[in-house]
Amino acid sequence: MNAALDLRDVTCIFPPATPAGEPYTAVRNASLKLQDGEFVALVGPTGCGKSTLLNVAAGLLPVSSGQAFVFGQSITGINREATYMFQADALLPWLKARDNVALGLQLRGVGQAESIERAHSWLQRVGLTGHADKYPHQLSGGMKKRVSLAQILVLEPKILLMDEPFSALDIQTRQLMENELLEIWSANRKSVIFVTHDLEEAISLSDRVVVLSAGPETAPIAEFVVDLPRPRDVTEIMHTSQYSKLHKDIWSSLKAEVLKSYRRRTESGVAEA
Amino acid sequence: MSSQSIMKVWMTRVLILALIFLGWYLASEHSKVTKFFVGSPVGVLTVIYNWLVSGEIYAHLFITLIETLLAFALGTAFALVTGLWLALSRFWSAVFDPFIKAINTMPRLILAPIFSVWFGLGIWSKVALGVTIVFFIVFFNVYQGVREVSPVLLANVRMLGANQAQLIRRVYIPSAMSWVFSSLHLSVGMAFVGAVIGEYMGSSAGVGYLILQAELTFDMDTVLAGILVLTVFALLLDLVVSLVEVHLLAWRPSNS
Asked: What is the distance in angstroms between the Cα of B249 and the nearest Cα belonging to chain A?
């Protein structure tokens, strides 16, 4: 059985921004495997190249060296098995919620009536039944995230790539969204790569936490199996002793990288985001 | 504002208008010389009244309106295609950059006599003049609209399954159109200016033509009446644009 995603010795080098600049190696010799139906969280310090790895998996970014496979097939161009939920707002502002959700289906050749019907049923599943006719600017931050979630799930992808999707939300909304994501995921297990810099979020959601080193030249340095029982409730799970132990173990490996990254950023004079 | 202060604003406006007309009236009654230079409000209103009653003005207004709409439509269509093309092709936008700068800097009203020679005294020379003005307003907006599409939005729509043609139709054109719509007042207004100036430079019909004819006989009342009609017409056109705009830009936050 082929892994859902298989990144082998992937290196990504970006050309310099100015002719006089140095090329930037975001990721070096990174290997990562995602089994079918597995929920993997990638954690690492800010700016460590987590999104770069995700973009490689999405087929948005070609590798400089190494190989990337999806279900055994080499990734060339957009990865059609995967959908991507971005950190920033990526809804089309001129489309109503319903049309935003239906867009992917329409791009893939599904007819107008059927795509709208399926969009409605997904909007209902993410709790936005009465908001189908609203434009994104009329929705709150949490509601926009729900539309984004419906927008990618309506395509029934085998792989979900999620780049800090809930980081802009307040903590209550975020935990609600996390629980909903878990519920939807457990109903029909997709393979998920969930990028976050929040260790709590990583542990409460995933089957496996992969720790990335501080950038540049990021690569996975450790991984931890999260064997907490499912179904989980993210607001309660953090009170268990099993959770505390995992948190302690993972943090001890992550801490050094966070400090390294912090030192590098303060030394190079980059302002805190 | 409270309804009371809105009332106050309106009353003050009416008062100012009344004072202007009163001053104008007094000046025109002062002597034959002043009447020759500034016309008279009574004379101007009489001309307008006669135009409306005889129906003479409608045909001219219709011509001016047609020229405006054609200049707007053709200029916008042409600019949309060119803007999309140049914004999506780094090579050709680099090639054409100095040409576009040069033509945009050129005072284009001066092209009116050339267009009269090329397209005759009918509506097409006016449309051509309007097009050259509208084109650049819309072109720069389309160009900006395409270039300003957020990379995240593009990546998202590509991941949802869009090919290049679908990206253009689903992302680039709507984004460009939102910029075009937000400059609708300016481009429609400029199409109108192009039409009227074109008529004034040589024509056989249109409100600009009426003004030109009156000016040749030093008929100041008719000149001013023409200007007044044009102003009211421009205001109405602007009102229509505002109504259309509300409909087209419904997806935008209203505070912008």
From this structure: 8
> Region A60-75: what's the mean pLDDT?
88
Let me know if B94 is exposed, middle or buried by CB neighbors in 10 A (0-12, 13-18, 19+). exposed
Please tell me which residue of chain A has the smallest CA distance to B154.
A90
What is the pLDDT, as a whole number, of residue A270?
Answer: 56
The complex's ipTM works out to: 0.87
- Among A25, A9, A1, CA closest to A68: A9
What value, to the nearest 5°, has the Cα angle with vertex B201 and ends B198 and B207? 60
Q: Does A152 touch chain B (CB under 8 A)?
A: yes
Angstrom CA distances, A185 to A145, A214, B233, stand at: 16, 30, 61
- The 10s digit of each residue's pLDDT in B123-156 is 999 999 999 999 999 999 999 889 889 999 999 9
Confidence of residue B255 (pLDDT cuts 50, 70, 90): low
> What's the mean pLDDT in B114-121?
90
Least confident of A48-57, A136-145, B76-85: A48-57
pLDDT (tens digit, 9 = 90+) per residue, A29-50? Answer: 888 889 888 999 998 887 667 8
User: Given the DSSP bridges, would you call strands A82-85 and A159-163 parallel, antiparallel or unpaired?
Assistant: parallel
Helix (H) or strand (E) holding B53: helix B41-54
CB contact under 8 A, A88 and B158: no
Question: What are the residue ranges spanned by the domains of chain A?
Answer: 5-81+160-267, 86-156
User: Which residue of B148, B156, B171, B180 is the best one to mutate when testing the A interface, meaning the one whose CB has the most A CBs within 10 A?
Assistant: B156
- CATH number for A5-81+160-267 (one of 1.10.8.60, 3.40.50.300, 3.40.50.720, 3.30.559.10): it is 3.40.50.300
Q: Is the C-alpha dihedral spanning B156, B158, B164, B165 positive or negative? A: negative
The answer to whether A137 faces chain B, any CB pair under 8 Å, is: yes
pLDDT of A273 over the 50 cut: no
pLDDT computed for residue A269 by the predictor: 60
Substitution target in A92, A95, A145, A158 with the highest count of B β-carbons within 10 Å is A92
Q: Are A205 and A182 in contact, with CB atoms under 8 Å apart?
A: yes
Is there a contact between B178 and A94 if contact means CB atoms under 8 Å apart? yes
> Among partner residues B152, B155, B166, which is closest to A107 by beta-carbon distance?
B166
A62-88: average pLDDT: 89
Interface mutation vs chain B, best among A91, A99, A103, most B CBs within 10 Å: A103
Q: Per DSSP, what are the bridge partners of residue A192?
A: A39, A160
- For chain B, give every domain's residue range: 1-38, 41-248
Q: Taking the model in full, what pTM does it have?
A: 0.81
